[in-house]
Specification:
This protein is α+β, with helices and mostly antiparallel strands. It is built from two helices and eight strands.
């Protein structure tokens, strides 16, 4: 657990000042491209030997032949989160990594 313990008005709480400024992104290592859409992600996965799997209409799914691995991600890209990113990274360690992206809005 990272952050700073703050004592204020008789209450102690853990604050993480970086959490509101950073978010996670999926990076395709060979081209150093940040994945910003499912069409981009699908192209990368297909080039790595993954195939679309159409079992569940609520999900985008990919599998590799001769493997039990399945990547399942929500159809709505706005619901794509770090849990899904790490699932992709674990199954494609040489091709993807999760990075911290600093928001410039503040």
């Amino acid at each position: 657990m990272s952050g700073v313990w703050v004592f204020k008005n008789g209450v102690v709480r853990l604050e993480n000042p970086a959490s509101s400024k950073n978010h996670k992104a999926l990076l395709y290592i060979p081209s150093k491209e940040v994945i910003t859409s499912y069409s981009s992600l699908e192209g990368k996965l297909l080039s790595l030997g993954w195939e679309r799997y159409y079992e569940d209409p609520a999900l985008l799914q990919f599998h590799k032949r001769n493997s039990l691995n399945i990547i399942s991600i929500p159809k709505d890209f706005s619901s794509f989160n770090s849990m899904h990113m790490y699932d992709i990274v674990i199954k494609n360690r040489e091709a993807f990594k999760v990075i911290d992206v600093i928001n410039q809005d503040n």
